[in-house]
Amino acid sequence: MIRTILPTATGAIEIGDALPTYLIAEIGLNHTGNEELARTMIYQAALSGASFVKFQKRSPVDLATANFLDAPFAKCPVLGRTQREVRHRLELSLEAYQRLRCYAESLGLIFFASAFDIPSLDFLLQADVKIVKIASHSLTNGPLLRRLAQLRLPVIASVGGSTSHEQDMALGILRDNPVVLLHCVSAYPTPDHMVALDTIAALRERYKIPVGFSSHEVGIDISVAASVLGACMIERHFTLNRAMIGLDQSISLEPAEFAEMAIKVRRLQAARGVSKGLQDGEKAAKYAYHVAVCANQPIRAGTVIAAEMLVCKQPLIDPMRYFTGLEVESVIGLTAKIDLVGDTAIPRDSVSAYR
Fold first, then answer.
1. Whether residue 296 sits in one domain with residue 240
2. Are 27 and 122 within one domain?
3. What residues does 299 pair with on adjacent strands?
4. DSSP character at residue 301
5. Alpha-carbon distances of 284 from 171, 259, 270, 318, 320, rounded to whole Å
6. Radius of gyration of the chain from Cα atoms?
7. Three-state DSSP class for 291?
């Protein structure tokens, strides 16, 4: 079994093989810097079936060069003209993080966040965030990974846009951390032909750690399929309405969609497993419609039973009391201990091996 332990506000949960697929509602920056909106989104995520809610934390000046931050940024002009303006507008205060974490935990959710730089990691530690997300484009941030390794913090890490060699290096740095890896494709939205869901199993086999799916495709079908293919977690961007202003609203699920995904994932989770033979719920059909070995004519006590005296017919009634059709050869040559009625199942205790 490949499993790991992640902390919660009240203890810990186990993640991995033969356990539920946990759903992450990535609120990210869809709150647009508004704490009350963030609070509402947490509430809706809880109603929609999420187990985790995830935010994003950046220190723009520590993450990017001045030229990059001050270049024109056309993605969401309502929020600002440059990356610097947009990023500063979207950040929440330490006190807001602490309040939101406490609120999420009061609803039974696990609150965590992506740290994009070391000052943001320190910020999250001050907010008492117990799990840190490494976003895909942070998987190659060696200093950040080494800081996490020093702290031995539990990590959920996405691998979008990285090579196998880069993944090896990153996980080598984090070898002593509890890690859940998320298969991810850094294309927004991700076309179906790029999703490559079998990567979930390949990553699990390669690294021997639990693997989930950070999904950016349109709709919920592929995410649901990922749960059947062994994803221990599914992370989806979450919004109240895709028409809202924001950087990631257009690739996010609305509450009703997230809830539908949760229902389908949990139904399929209940349907997984390996059959261990006859189940109680199958017995009625088995006993009614499987065949028993029957006498096709009256057979007197003391008669040695020949093949031409037998026929297989429904109902079996009870395989503990009657021979199944697979056992017809074993009845040939036995001796009737009592008179057997024609067109009737032969009880096991009515025949003997003795002549």
1. no
2. yes
3. 340
4. T
5. 52, 35, 22, 10, 14
6. 30
7. coil
- Please name the residue that has the structure tokens 């003997």: 352
pLDDT tens, residue by residue, 86-141: 888 999 999 999 999 999 999 999 999 999 999 999 999 999 999 999 999 999 99
Dist. CA 151–CA 327, nearest whole Å? 65
Q: Is 297 found in the same domain as 263?
A: no
Give me the number of domains the chain comprises: 2
Q: Are residues 49 and 150 in the same domain?
A: yes
Contacts of 226 (CB under 8 A, 6+ apart): 183, 197, 200, 212, 213, 215, 234
Sign of CA pseudo-dihedral 141, 142, 147, 149: positive
Give the CATH number, domain containing residue 333: 3.90.1210.10
- In 3D space, the residue among 213, 226, 219, 222 whose CA is nearest the CA of residue 251 turns out to be 219
Residue at a domain's end among 253, 271, 289: 271
From the number of C-beta atoms within 10 Å of its C-beta (0-12, 13-18, 19+), residue 264 rates as middle
Residue 91 CB coordination number (10 Å): 17
Q: How far apart are CA 338 and CA 355, in angstroms?
A: 13
- Distance, CA of 135 to CA of 144 (rounded, Å): 11
pTM of the shown model: 0.89
Q: What is the pLDDT of residues 203-261, one digit of tens each?
A: 999 999 999 999 999 999 999 999 999 999 999 999 999 999 888 999 999 999 999 99
Contact 174/149 with Cβ under 8 angstroms?
yes
User: What pairing do the DSSP bridges indicate for beta strands 12-16 and 310-313?
Assistant: unpaired
CA dihedral over 224, 229, 230, 232, signed as positive or negative = negative
Cα–Cα distance list, 329 to 11, 225, 310, 323 (Å): 60, 46, 10, 10
Q: Which domain holds residue 337?
A: 280-352
Each residue of 185-218: b (16+ CB within 10 Å) or e?
bbeeebeeeebebebbeebbeebebbbbbbbbbe
In the numeric block, which tokens belong to residue 172?
A: 């080598």
